[in-house]
Design goal:
Elements (H helix, E strand, L loop, with lengths): L11 E5 L2 E5 L27 H4 L2
Antiparallel strand pairs: 1-2
């Protein structure tokens, strides 16, 4: 499972599976209220394929 949320920490380029992503690993969540988005990837267990159409 991959959990992505708004955070105030600076991002770094890191490899996550076969992908290079800009992320702040283990960052504290930003304060405030944000919408919840749940995606069922449907690709047999590779949740990051969904990022191609999400723009991540």
């Amino acid at each position: 499972m991959t959990v992505m949320y708004p955070a105030g920490n600076p991002e770094q380029v890191e490899r996550l599976g076969p992908y290079l992503l800009e992320l702040a690993r283990e960052a504290e969540p930003s304060g405030g209220m944000f919408p919840l988005v749940i995606i069922s990837h449907g690709t047999g267990g590779r949740s990051l394929y969904t990022g191609r159409w999400l723009g991540i």
